[in-house]
Amino acid sequence: MEKIKINAYAKINLSLDVIGKREDGYHNLRMIMQEIDLKDIITISETKDENIKIICKSKKVPTDEKNIAYKAAMLMLKKYEKPTGLTIEIEKHIPVAGGLAGGSTDAAAVLKGLNEIWELNLTQNELMEIALELGSDIPFCIMGGTALARGRGEELTPLKSFKDRHILLVNPDISVSTKDVYDNLDLKSIEERPDTGTLIEAVEDGDTEKLAKCMRNVLESVTVKKYPMIDEIKETMMKNGALGSLMSGSGATVFGIFKTEEELDICKSQMENQFKNVIKAKTN
Ligand code: C5P
Q1: How far is the CA of 162 from the CAs of 36, 52, 225, 255, 271, in angstroms?
Q2: Helices 124-132 and 102-117: crossing angle, nearest 10°?
Q3: For ligand 1, atom 9: residue with the closest CA
Q4: Which of 13, 59, 90, 156 has its CA 20 to 30 A from that of 98?
Q5: Which of 143, 169, 165, 172 has the alpha carbon at shortest distance from 155?
Q6: Would you name the residues annotated as active-site residues?
Q7: pLDDT in tens, 84-120
Q8: Which of 106, 177, 178 to mutate for ligand 1's pocket (most ligand atoms within 8 Å of CB)?
Q9: Nearest one of 234, 159, 248, 167 to 197, comparing CA atoms
Q10: At what angle do helices 124-132 and 68-79 cross, to 10 degrees?
Q11: Atom 3, ligand 1: which residue's CA is nearest?
């Protein structure tokens, strides 16, 4: 009976643009995705009883077939006809339903972990293809680093490393449904879109200040309307030294980018007076 422990890293969106609605109900996107060092820890163990069991201390994480890590395990068991059960332990540190791909990255870790313990020798591209059957963000979670994502989010072009930038995350303890946000997005009323070309240039030049100034997320138009607190967090970040601040994904986590760790620490202590879930991170 094999056992493996895997780090499942969160992501932030340095920008997110929605190009249009597709016939399959999804939207075509153009976004810059960035892996960060905030992580869940996933332990996968083979068992004899042929069931999938999810163990997680966080009450917000479902432990049944609704959990996307469960779905990933089920898909792999069926695909490779393995006569085994699996116990998946999730040590949760990434805020749930917070725009940080917390569920998606756990599922990606299950795919990677099973690829190893079953010695399937699947390539990264093969794993990314399986990942897309489970969710739009999961191929990026397999790849990590910094990437331009198009299509549903699965057409990925790796960008130059944007490692070791200082990131402060504030999660206002609101669980957001990604589907609801996309359903309520009015493409015609989007006022400000990211200039993705300039953002790519900033990443390629390693220019944190330029990137921070240009960051935009068109989904803020939906989520901020419902939760104005997101704008307040962004403003507080900017008043306290952030180079730029943005909502990640469909929300509601907000992040700020800082020039130095010292500047981040000053802002962090300010934010902690007002908000509960304040997390220090770095880009990977
Ligand atoms: O693929 P995933 O299950 O993560 O997507 C959740 C929901 O977000 C979808 O049901 C869809 O409503 C929306 N979505 C979208 N276009 C994308 C990705 C997600 O409309 N490219």
Answers
A1: 10, 37, 31, 16, 25
A2: 130
A3: 179
A4: 156
A5: 143
A6: 11, 137
A7: 999 999 999 999 989 999 999 999 999 999 999 999 9
A8: 178
A9: 159
A10: 120
A11: 135
